[in-house]
Structures are given as C-alpha cells and as structure tokens.
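quick one
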Amino acid sequence: MTYDQNNIFAKILRGEIPCDKIYESDHALAFKDIHPQAKVHVLVIPKGAYVNMDDFSQNASSEEITGLIRALGEVAKIIGVSQYSSGKGYRYIGNNGPDGGQEVPHLHFHIVGGEPLGRMVSTKS
Ligand code: AMP
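structure w/ adenosine monophosphate:
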C-alpha cells in the first residue's frame, strides 16, 4: 500500500495548508471538517503516514494506536459530545477504501454529532 505524501491531510500535518485545529498530541491531530455534515463534525487523524485502517492496524506501533484512540476520546470531550462533557452522544465514521467512500487517502475518523443522527447507514444515494 503506497502512501501519497501529497494528500491534503499530509499537507495539513506539514503545515503547508491551514486547518481549524481542535486538538493535537504526539500521535494525533484533530480539526474541523471543511464541509460539515452535522452541527458538530471533526476529523481525527494519526500523525503517522497511514493510508487507511487496513494499513494502520497492520503497521502502526502500539503507541500510535493508543495515541489515536485516546485522541478520539479527548476530542469528543473537547467538542462537547462526550458523556464526560454532558454531551448527548455522537458517531464515529471511518471510511475505508473505494467501497467505503474514502476520499482522502490518510486514515481519519469523523466524529459527528450535536444533533440526532438517525439510523446508521444506507446503500441508497
Ligand atoms: P472521506 O470521504 O472519509 O475521505 O472524508 C474526507 C473528509 O475530509 C470530507 O468530509 C471533507 O469535507 C474533508 N476535508 C477535505 N479537505 C479538508 C480540509 N482542507 N480541511 C478539513 N476537512 C477537509
């Protein structure tokens, strides 16, 4: 699996283009999605160069995996959707590969919430 060093999130990580940053740690960065699909929509990405979950789950270190999962929980608190910040819940979305609808080839989780999101998934467009 080849990582594209010129994908948009790689450019954000290198500071070449701006983002609306929510959180940063040694292993993860979170920023607002540029085209929000709900009242709250934030992206959480690993700092390492991983194409998707297939790549990350096989090749990331234990520290990177822990760092990304910790970041997801911290970000949910920061943006007010976690039960630890009196939020009403949220949804993680991880699009993986062509059938998953992944557009940016750097692993990312969407955290969406701030309103009721309805049922989980539809194959109808
Ligand atoms: P996916 O379809 O899972 O690959 O989602 C990619 C997401 O990245 C989409 O929701 C886009 O709106 C978002 N996105 C693309 N470019 C940027 C950017 N420069 N800053 C923030 N979000 C972005």
